[in-house]
Amino acid sequence: MPNVKVYDMSGADAGTKDLSDNIFDSKINKSLLHSVVRAYLLNQRLGTHSTLTRAEVRGGGAKPWRQKGTGRARQGSRRSPQWIHGGIVFGPKPRSYRVSINKKARRVALKGALTSKVKSGELIVVNDIAIEEFKTKTVINMLDALGSEKKALIVVDSHNEKLIKSANNIPGVKTTMADNLNVYDVLNCDKFIVSSKAIDKIEEVYA
After folding, report:
1. Contact 134, 162 (CB under 8 A)
2. 30, 57, 153, 191: least CB-packed within 10 angstroms?
3. Within 13 Å and on the Cβ side, how many CA atoms surround 34?
4. Hey, is 88 helix, strand or coil?
């Protein structure tokens, strides 16, 4: 059973906490992690890109010049692909990039991502993340005290409007709830900062 240190918001020691073997000490399947992250990123794409083919570009009704006698190459339309402002050959059209990953595979991948954070020492447990007012400086001070200098993911057990808005304009910092984790966010952060109550929530939801 993994055992990690618990800190308070000032970075002082606040004891230790035992983590569930089922979630924080599971097998790490790199191939599955890759598949789930790839699916997540593809599913973020809107697929609304569109270009005009020669049939859709406006104009081109008249032949640019007569077929023979000019010494130039024969042309049938000013909207052919070789002309400036002509149609696009094999250009992108609206499509769905959606990739499905079954629920069981996503859950296994998430457990592997959480385990990787424990093994790499990037999991930081805070006894209580309490923000009493809308103040970015409070979150910055907490991150500095916990040694988080780059990208950080702050996880709490329930919706906290003051924390979300206080952390919103800090570059590289993202907040989420324990029951709304995804593999990409967990792997993409340099420090996984989670409250003690959120750990309990994670173990309850993903057990």
Report:
1. yes
2. 30
3. 3
4. coil
